[in-house]
């Protein structure tokens, strides 16, 4: 029998940073929240499209949904080039 364990916060963070290379991902221990910030400045086009420089979420599921939404907006604006 194989036991399945939940990934640690560090493992989740590493996977997210690999999946979303334009973001720095942190798990804020003091508040138990997830935080993402862009690794490069936003262009005017990205800002107008609703891309944000950073955000926090209470749960991992909320965070991954918000990160995916932001990545989609970035892709519509030409990708992660500054």
Structural notes for this entry:
With 82 residues, the protein is an alpha+beta fold. It has one domain. The protein is built from three helices and three strands; from the N terminus they run H-E-E-H-E-H. The protein has helices spanning 9-19, 44-49, 60-76, and strands spanning 23-28, 33-38, 54-57. It has a three-stranded antiparallel β-sheet. It is elongated. The termini are far apart. The mean pLDDT is 91.
| pLDDT < 50 stretches | none
Mind describing the biggest β-sheet? 3 strands, antiparallel
Using DSSP, what is the number of strands? 3
How helical, in percent, are the residues? Answer: 40-55%
Shape: elongated
Content of β-strand = 15-25%
Number of helices: 3
Order of helices and strands: HEEHEH
The pLDDT mean sits at: 91
- Which strands sit side by side, in order, in the main sheet? 1-2-3
Broad structural category? alpha+beta
Straight-line N-to-C gap: 49 Å
Q: Compute the gyration radius: what is it?
A: 14 Å
Number of domains: 1
